[in-house]
Each structure stands twice: as C-alpha cells, then as structure tokens.
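Quick one - first record:
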Amino acid sequence: MPGEWCGGGVWISDKARVHPSAYGLMEGYTFVGPKAVVGRGASLSGVVAVGDECWVSDGATVKQSVLLPGSSVGRGAHLEDCIVGPGYEVRPGEWIRGGALVRGVS
C-alpha cells in the first residue's frame, strides 16, 4: 500500500489527509489508512490503527485503539484501549476507555 513513514513508527497512506498540526501529535506505532482524515490538533498515541475512510475530528485523542473502516471520532472525543466497529460514530466530547464499540444490526 503506497504511503510514507513519518519517523518512528508512524505510517500514513498517500491517500490519507492529515492536518499539519496532527503530525507532531502522533507517537508510538500509528497507521493511517487510505482516505482517512485526521483533523487539526488530533492526537494519536501508543499503538493506533486508523482504517480506510475513517475520520478523526479536530482535537480528538485516540490512544491504544483500532478504528475499523468507516468509523469516526467526534471533535474533542477521547478514546483509549478501544476497538471501534465499522461505521460507528463516537460523538463529540465523549470519553471512552476500554471497550468494543459497534452498531446494532437490525
């Protein structure tokens, strides 16, 4: 998959969009997949995988977590030790530690 190493353990797909202010807030082993968006001031630390077409909004914090394709993290939300299921939307300002977040199936 085309992309670039950005120092340390940070890898960003060439089709991802990352706000310049977020680069300095990425620590540990971080993967940002194709068509993912990482907003202004968003922080990714520890071991983090941001899947295809995910959205990490401005000021959000993601630590030691996996975002499966199509999921999103709202502005100012904080996730730690989570697995976020496909298409799940973490609401702005939510603070979640430890859990699997999935949508119910009808």
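second record:
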Amino acid sequence: MSLPPLTSLPRSRWIRRGLRLPGIAALALLASGCGGQPATVEGLVTLDGRLLPEARISFHPDAAGPVAYGVSLADGSYRLKTGAKASGLAPGGYRVTVFALEVTEGTEEKAGPLLTPAIYGDPAKTPLRCQVAPGPNQISLALKAAAGAKPP
C-alpha cells in the first residue's frame, strides 16, 4: 500500500492553524529568552581605593538561582558568569561576596593571609548588596579594610 502524495492531502484551515499556533508560541519563547532578558555584570573592585587584583567575586541571588562568579584581573576589573560557558545572570537582587588572598611567591606560589575583611566573604553577613537590571550592568565594588574591625 502506498501513501498519497502530500499535495493531495486535504488542507483544512484547522490543520494549518493547528500547526501554526505551536510554531508561533515556540518563536515567542525563543524571542523572550524563556524568562526575560539576561543581565551581564562587570566593574572594578577596590580595597581602600586601591585596585584589587585576583579577588574572587560572587553574586548570590536573593531568589532561587545559580550563583554568578568572577575573578578580578590585574587592573581590578571583573566580569561575572554563571557557569563554564554562561556569561549572563538573571535580573534581581544579589548579596555580593568578595575575598582575596595575598599570594606569596617562592619556589611555588602559596596562598597567604586574607587581604579582604572576612565580613565580605560571608553571604549572610556581607554589607554588599546590589540590584541587577536586564541588559548590561556596570557595578563597582568599593571595599573598606575597616569593615571587618570591631568598634571600640
């Protein structure tokens, strides 16, 4: 038994409409990014006004979602990502953690003492908060060495 050619099949408007609607819905989801426009974040990180290279920066979302992270370069600049290949993050509120260790050079590099106050490394205690908007965001992080000091 052979099948009739496709051109001889009836082309009811219900079939055409039934196939068109899922296609339109799929295109709408692709255009919207399945959840809105992703955000990108980059900026500078400083400690007492001096650029802070090799700092580990993490943005912890207030809502559920992955943590975005990055490492500052020699010029103090950073760019966040949420995975090995992902460069964006969801818009919303974030708690920001930053920590940097002094690197001691010798026969092998070893991590030295903590350069940043410990309060900046704890997601529950960090005073750094930010709001990330859809699209590109420029967020500079100005840390103070005195932030970890206990008041007299």
